[in-house]
Amino acid sequence: MNILLLGSGGRESALSWKMSQSPKCENLFIAPGNAGTSAYGTNVALGINDFEAIKTFCLDHKIDTLFPGSEDPLVNGIYDFFKADAALQHITIVGPSKLGAALEGSKDFAKEFMKRHHIPTAAYETFNTQNFEDGLRYLDQHTTPIVLKADGLAAGKGVVITSDKEEAKRVFTSMIKKAQFGAAGSKVVVEQFLTGIELSVFAFTDGENYVLLPEAKDYKRIGEGDSGPNTGGMGAISPVPFAQGDFMKKVIEQVVDPTIKGLKEENIIYQGFVFFGLINVGGDPYVIEYNCRMGDPETEVVMPRLENDLLDLIEKMKEGKLDEVTVQHSANAACTVMLVAGGYPEAYRKGDAISGLEDVKNSIVFHAGTTAKEGAVLSNGGRVLAVTSYGSDINEALQTSYESLKALHFDNMNFRKDIGYEFK
Ligand code: AMP
Ligand code: GLY
Asked: Is it true that domain 2-97 has CATH number 3.40.50.20?
């Protein structure tokens, strides 16, 4: 296979690590990639939303499989762009049509979809400029905490949770009127606050059948004990101890099956990953969000625990034969600990030299925000490195990651010291 993977984070590092191990991998290109992905394939300087440049590259390099790692190109309709072009139609896209990607791209679309298919999710109302005043009255009567979600993609900054009604009204007003989150601000979903432990479940579907990949739990807050602001994710573990038995049966019957069936019934073209952001409320799963791609940093533990050949799964997806596949999950646990730039998720510095990469022996270091310059590896983002380890259980995996990361250094390096804390 000749593959072009779009993205430059830890997720794309883990995906290219996994794909490069396949005997089916002939050429793997990563656009734009990072200092780590060049160990698994060839980095190419293309923007992930520059569809024309991606087209030219695909034709010049006989790409047969385009794999958008992140949601942006999918929500922007890269699938539709390829399928509408006679020269590109034959290329397999690992990811849904623009309409399918709206499961992630529009909170309101996702909520309506769940309502139509009786998929458990927090109760909600949607407001826009027309019923703005109703929204303010609704907030007055709402129980606290209140969850406010800007409708479109907002890079993790579109959700505000507050117990202060006046603050809720201020945020609501600015989300709707001031378009604080760009185009994402025109509609606002107000929803019931759910209490429980979150987890991420991943289905890989050919539009008809699906397989489940190993589940994971990520740690979104910057601080220990889940304190401070949300980040892209500070670490992850897999498996998740409570994701078994009755609970997983409910996840499959109440969430995954009706989602895959619902997409098909509504003729929404969808081949690729469905990421279910779930919360366990007293033993019952509720959907917090859908994503139309793999998670980051979840991929950095899911790919290491997936024993199947990922390119084999992609081939079966293309053929609509995922029913022929049995997914093998490693018996080992895996964890990843993110090393981030000081200051992240607020302002942080880039361009700091990273040392010690060659000294890590017992873990896999997936590069996230890094760049190569004159033989050195420099930090180039908020999340810089993901230190992934295996273990016979989560504790052992975590011990290994925390031991390994002692070898790594860059100025103002920060990381959470309590990944997996609930399960120790
Ligand atoms: P989202 O962007 O929808 O994933 O939301 C970001 C984070 O906000 C989630 O990971 C949850 O931690 C939290 N969150 C979102 N919706 C709810 C809800 N209805 N109840 C409680 N927490 C929520
Ligand atoms: N780790 C959460 C996400 O990828 O959206």
From this structure: yes
198 lines ligand 2 (CB under 6 A): no
User: In angstroms, what is the span from residue 232 Cα to ligand 2's centroid?
Assistant: 6
Ligand 2 atom nearest to 236, measured from its CA: 1
The closest alpha carbon to 71, from 392, 397, 307, 292, belongs to 292
For domain 129-186, the CATH superfamily is: ATP-grasp fold, A domain (3.30.1490.20)
**CA–centroid distance, residue 200 to ligand 2 (Å):** 8
At 182, is the pLDDT very low, low, confident or very high (cuts 50, 70, 90)?
A: low
Structure tokens at 302: 């899911």
Domain layout of the chain by residue ranges: 2-97, 129-186
Query: Distance between terminal CA atoms of the chain?
Result: 42
Give dist(CA 151, CA 75) in Å, integer: 13
Output the residue whose Cα is nearest ligand 1's atom 16: 288
Q: What is the DSSP letter of 327?
A: P
- Over residues 301-358, the pLDDT tens digits come to 999 999 999 999 999 999 999 999 999 999 999 999 999 999 999 999 999 999 999 9
Question: Of 9, 5, 11, 47, whose CA–CA distance to 370 is shortest?
Answer: 9
- Strands 27-32 and 42-43, sheet pairing: parallel
pLDDT one-digit tens code per residue, 226-270 = 999 889 999 999 999 999 999 999 999 999 999 999 999 999 999
The ligand placed nearest to the CA atom of residue 181 is 1
Ligand 1 pocket test: which of 107, 114, 144, 159 has the largest number of ligand atoms within 8 Å of its C-beta?
159
Q: Which of 356, 347, 348, 340 is nearest to 414 (CA)?
A: 340
- For 202-237, give the DSSP string: EEEE-SS-EEEPPPBEE--EEETTTEEEE-S-SEEE
Q: Which residue has the tokens 């509609």?
A: 187
Name the pTM for this structure: 0.95
